[in-house]
# Entry
Amino acid sequence: MGLLSEVLLLPAAPVRGTVWVLRQVVAEAERQYRDPAVVQRELARLVAGYERGEIGDAEFDRREDELLARLEDGARTR
# Structure
């Protein structure tokens, strides 16, 4: 039955391939989103921008809170 189902599903192969690729992209994006090294680099860039005066206090606080939440989320999912 395996060969027959593969033949019958052959027209759907491009869709199945696209779905697989999309799942891989989403998985990698989620991995990078929660990766502590990535978040720490973003925090360092944020602090540097703040020290150079490129962003204000409110923006810094908002983005810092978001990054710290990502760090906590990543630690919880491991």
About this structure: The two ends are 40 Å apart (CA to CA). The helical segments are 2-9, 13-34, 36-51, 57-77. The chain has a mean pLDDT of 88. The CA atoms of residues 4 and 61 lie 59 Å apart.
